[in-house]
Write a structure and sequence with these properties.
The protein has 20 helices and 18 strands. The protein is an alpha+beta fold. Strand 9 and strand 10 form a beta hairpin. Helix 16 packs antiparallel against helix 17. The longest helix has 53 residues. About 1% of the residues have low confidence.
Length: 702
């Protein structure tokens, strides 16, 4: 069964904690002496400092019968500082001799003046572990979980796995070095040898996988399918040669091959930089990646490994401190994920880390309390039980529930959203947009990807990492990835929930559309009855009346009724026909008012207009003409209508007294503005230089 991204991340972080605990346990097994050993400024003598001795030079160390010289090489942090494998063997022999001597309970030291003293051997406690030990533990753990997080959420990207292995390599190198570099005077030679081998394996894994990463990211090169195996094979060959000491010195078997691999990373970086010249997004991501990777690795190599290869000493003394430089690589990648969307997981980064860090805080709280609760033997059990039962466990349980809770679906909110979405059944595009938003509210996926293919029912994909959900209306679907921000996988419960809302949404749309269709049919029936009954009577009245004003009023009423009937039709009307009918009616009005009408129309014969649009257009023109007849004292009206880039352009001009004289005290102008707004258009009045007023309307024609 495929694990969810957060499950993978938690598994890796738990295994990392187990590795850290193992390293802590092993570090605490190293015997401790109540003394501080140092090398004198000349670098030739070993010094000891205790409460009784102030930096006295030492001659030898051992037991009552056997001693070894107190040489400064006993205090080196790492065997990499030794020139060859023979010197390593001598060093390990000296370490083992000291450990065997300390197993007798004390270590005898001979000062330079011949005085001898015996130091008791103590068990190393948790609080005796130095800062540099913890610094390397944290650096390794940080690299491990950042690499694991990138891989967990980008498993489909081949560049993510090398980064995860880089994090593992950093953890191996930092944790092993953290143990032997802070050992004090001596540790078991077998453990020293094993930890040194693990350190080198982690370092070469890190270097080889960095080359594999730059081979694949941001633009994959040829042969990228085999580069991971090639990098692992190269790392194993270098590590095997170093572990088996196949050469005379580590320079030949480890350091030189390491730097060859490192130089290949630089060449690959140059190749990626040139390949991404025409891709600004890839170039930006690569720039930050290179800044992060090479800042840390160059700092580590330039200040630690290269000086060791050449001189046997790191520039800054402590190799452990430089492990933090490699941790900077992964910190830089974390920032790059936020800033430049490295590996395309930027939108998930904060949520995942806040959840993970919260869980780590609970574990850290447990560990801290276990290490700090020190009570007298007679009070230990009752006081511990009291504090744990009344304070700690309830607080810890509350914190854990806050971090791990899975809220119940807010069905009432979802139903409200669904009802609001289906209340506008004619707006298909808006419904699909709202449907995507509803699914986001229901499942909190990390990604929603539109798909062109249609599916009858929701279905699980990729073992639950994705859910395919059909669209409500059109023949498409949505692909939801990683529910609950990656905290879990999709289940059959999610499938049934999606089916429920799809069925409910489609039923709502169907019922609302059926109701609207029935309403339209009834409205059409009423309009047809008005047209047949009332229209016939008005027409008969216009024919029987001999008075022109009565005929004009009857014909105007007939036209208004026709407008209402046409506006109720769902089908479009021919705009030229609408304007022809309107022109005849207006001509009758202007003729009675003794006003000359000039009509200009540049509308194609096949131009259509919706019934409701025709109604508002007619009313605007009629109101404008009526205002001219009543208020302008004009002798001429010029009406022009044109269509340009999908916009209907209308102008009505007169030669009357101008804008202020044509202002009506009634609601005619307000009605014209409102109708223009319903047409999604703009209407304005303006005086003409030659006199009179001009009304202009501009509106889109659907």
């Amino acid at each position: 069964m495929r694990m969810s991204p957060l499950s993978i991340l938690l598994t890796c972080s738990t295994l990392g904690l187990a590795g850290m605990l193992a390293a802590i346990w092993l570090a605490m097994q190293i015997p401790l002496l109540q003394a501080e050993f140092q090398i004198d400024p000349s670098g030739n003598r070993l010094m000891i400092h205790t409460s009784e001795l102030d930096h006295e030079p030492l001659r030898s160390l051992g037991t009552g019968t056997q001693h070894i010289p107190a040489v400064p090489a006993l205090l080196i942090e790492d065997m990499d500082a030794l020139p060859d494998y023979a010197a390593r063997r001598d060093f390990l022999d000296g370490q083992q001799f000291l450990i065997n001597s300390m197993q007798q309970g004390s270590l005898q030291l001979t000062l330079d003046d011949g005085q001898t003293l015996s130091l008791p051997v103590l068990q190393r406690a948790f609080t005796d572990l130095p800062f540099m030990f913890w610094f390397q533990m944290i650096s390794g753990y940080l690299g491990l979980i950042i690499g694991s997080a990138v891989w967990a959420f980008s498993r489909q990207k081949q560049a993510a796995l090398p980064l995860a292995i880089m994090g593992l390599g950093l953890a191996m190198a930092a944790w092993s070095a953290g143990i032997y570099s802070t050992r004090g005077l001596a540790m078991d030679a077998n453990w020293f040898r094993l930890l040194g081998s693990i350190n080198h394996l982690g370092a070469i894994l890190y270097a080889c996988m960095m080359s594999a990463l730059l081979w694949r990211y941001p633009l994959p090169m040829r042969g990228d399918k085999w580069i991971g195996m090639t990098a692992l094979f190269t790392a194993s060959m270098i590590w095997g040669a170093d572990t088996l000491a196949l050469g005379s010195t580590p320079n030949i078997t480890f350091f030189i091959p390491f730097f060859i691999v490192f130089l290949s990373s630089i060449l690959l970086a140059v190749r990626q930089w040139r390949a991404s010249a025409c891709d600004p997004v890839a170039r930006a991501a690569l720039g930050w990646l290179l800044l992060s990777v090479f800042f840390g690795t160059v700092l580590f190599s330039g200040l630690s490994m290269l000086p060791m290869m050449l001189t046997g000493h790191a520039l800054l003394g402590s190799q452990g401190l430089l492990m933090g430089a490699l941790a900077l690589v992964h910190l830089g990648l974390a920032l790059g994920i936020i800033r430049y969307r490295l590996f395309d997981i930027g939108q998930w980064w904060f949520a995942v880390w806040s959840w993970l860090v919260g869980g780590m805080l609970v574990i850290a709280l447990d560990f801290l309390l276990l290490s700090l609760w020190v009570w007298p033997q007679t009070l230990a059990l009752p006081v511990t039980m009291l504090i744990a039962g009344l304070i700690y466990f309830p607080l810890r349980q509350w914190l854990w529930q806050r971090l791990m809770r899975h809220p119940e679906p807010e069905h009432e909110l979802f139903y409200t959203q669904l009802a609001a979405m289906c209340s506008q059944p004619d707006k298909n595009l808006q419904i699909e947009t709202d449907w995507s938003s509803l699914l986001a509210s229901m499942f909190s996926p990390m990604e929603i990807i539109p798909q062109a293919h249609a599916y009858a029912l929701p279905q699980l994909l990729n073992n639950g990492s994705h859910l395919q959900v059909p669209a409500l209306i059109d023949e498409s679907s949505l692909l939801l990835g990683y529910p609950a921000k990656g905290k879990r996988l999709f289940t059959q419960v999610d499938v049934r929930m999606a089916e429920h809302y799809i069925t409910m949404g489609r039923n709502m749309l169907s019922q609302i559309r059926e109701k609207q269709a029935a309403t339209r049919l009834e409205r059409q029936r009423i309009m047809n009855d008005l047209h047949d009954e009332l229209g016939g009577k008005l027409l008969e009245l216009s024919y029987q009346s001999s008075e022109s004003p009565v005929q004009s009023l009857a014909r105007s009423a007939i036209q208004d009724m026709r407008d209402l009937v046409h506006s109720s039709h769902e089908e479009n009307l021919v705009l030229d026909h609408v304007l022809s009918d309107l022109r005849g009616m207006i001509a009758s009005q202007t003729e009675l008012a003794d006003i000359m009408l000039k009509w200009g129309s540049a509308i194609a014969d096949d131009t259509n207009i919706a019934g409701w649009q025709a109604l508002h257009l007619r009313r605007i023109i009629k109101e404008a003409v009526t205002n001219v007849i009543r208020h302008a004292q004009a002798t001429e009206i010029v009406i022009s209508i044109a269509l340009e880039d999908g916009l209907l352009l209308l102008s009505i001009a007169d030669n009357g007294g101008g804008l202020y004289q044509t202002q009506s005290k009634g609601s005619g102008l307000m009605s014209m503005r409102q109708r223009a707004e319903k047409l999604a258009g703009e209407i304005r009045w303006e005086n003409q230089p030659e006199g009179g007023c001009k009304v202009s309307l501009q509106c889109p024609l659907s």
